[in-house]
Design goal:
seven-stranded parallel β-sheet; alpha/beta; 367 residues; 15 strands; 42% helix; Rossmann fold
């Protein structure tokens, strides 16, 4: 069976990291896999299979947000390699696959990784997004909340939408350095409370609200240090807002040592506007770190409130800050929540548990 995975870039982002983990977990055992990358980018994520970079991201059609050369390149790749199933990781790849195929004869599986921003839940945006999703043979929602949104908001037939949770490869999460070594390298005192935000610096992830939360935390915990891991278009605004806070806030950029940084941290902070089933929360849980987060989309499907972390109503910055303060101030609570998070995430969100469900889906669709 041949499976062609389609991703937007090779950057260290959630969709690409999951795709690499899935390809690795499905390697061998009768499955031949290739990866099509829409546009050239820094090669931060390694895929254990042949890769075809389809374009450079230029010459886009403004109204559609697609690249004509990329469409032609994908069409040629699919025609020559003849996959049995096309696995699409995210909305941008879905647009290219649907427009390139026109009338797809190969089953297309669309992995829906995030809830919809408000602008595409009504009017022309909703109609366009719904039309794209209907062109997929199956829509895989990474959280039950996203499945319900696809059915209720975008009117996708329930038989076409299934839930397969996000997952991570546990082997990637083994730290290479001790907690103290990482803190020493970053110049963080042993007694400091460390919160960490992991994700792209984008509107969806809302890093400025993360900064607002840590500012409130420092009013009660002046020793608190906030680590931002990730990069993106909001970085200049974030740098300007940080101003002269000195070592209290660190912008670390995109990193390949996330397990080490989680070992050095005490609490994962998540204050996203829109989410799916965030991989960073799963990674933190597997590392035994509790999460303080807004209860958006699939986050409550990972974090059990008052058992493996603390959840706050979306938009309630003060409540979220108090959750962080509570966790930073109680080592016993952190340990208890961290142990529960580790057990839950390893049982439900290990790629070895989730990958067989994709295999069964591919076999069903490929006949």
């Amino acid at each position: 069976m041949r499976v062609l995975h389609v991703v937007a870039t090779r950057q260290r982002r959630g969709a690409e990291i999951f795709a690499a983990d899935l390809v690795r977990a499905l390697s061998g055992d009768g499955i031949d896999q290739r990866v099509a990358v829409l546009r050239d980018s820094s090669a931060a994520v390694e895929f254990p299979s042949p890769i075809a970079v389809l374009g450079n991201g230029r010459s886009r059609i403004p109204a559609l947000g697609v690249n004509l050369r990329t469409l032609r390149a994908f069409h040629d790749l699919a025609a020559s390699w003849r996959p049995d199933v096309i696995q699409v990781h995210g909305g941008e790849p879905l647009k290219h696959v649907v427009l390139a195929a026109r009338r797809p004869s190969v089953p297309v599986v669309y992995r829906r990784i995030g809830s919809a921003p408000a602008q595409i839940t009504r009017g022309p945006g909703r109609l366009g997004h719904a039309r794209l999703m209907r062109r997929a043979t199956r829509v895989v929602a990474v959280a039950e909340a996203l499945r319900q949104e696809a059915i209720e908001t975008f009117r996708i037939p329930p038989r076409k939408v299934i839930t397969i949770p996000n997952a991570v490869d546990l082997d990637r999460l083994v730290p290479g350095r001790s907690r103290q070594d990482v803190r020493d390298a970053l110049g963080i005192p042993p007694e400091a409370g460390v919160l960490i935000s992991i994700g792209a610096l984008t509107w969806e992830k809302d890093p400025l609200t993360h900064l607002d939360v840590s500012s409130l935390v420092r009013q009660q915990r002046p020793d608190a240090v906030h680590l931002f891991v990730g990069d993106g278009p909001i970085r200049p605004a974030l740098e300007s807002s940080i101003g002269n806070l000195g070592d209290a806030v660190r912008l670390l950029g995109a990193r390949d040592d996330v397990p080490d940084l989680l070992a050095a941290a005490d609490v994962l902070l998540l204050a996203s506007r829109v989410e799916g089933l965030p991989g960073c929360v799963i990674e933190a849980g597997m590392a035994g770190r509790p999460t303080a987060a807004y209860a958006v989309a699939g986050v409550p499907e990972i974090v059990e409130h008052e058992r493996s972390g603390l959840l706050s109503p979306p938009g309630d910055v003060r409540s979220l800050a108090q959750a962080v303060v509570r966790l930073l101030g109680d080592e016993g609570l952190r340990d208890s929540f961290g142990s529960a998070a580790r057990a839950r995430c390893r049982e439900r969100f290990d790629i070895r548990v989730v990958a067989p469900r994709y295999r069964r889906l591919y076999e069903e669709l490929a006949g």
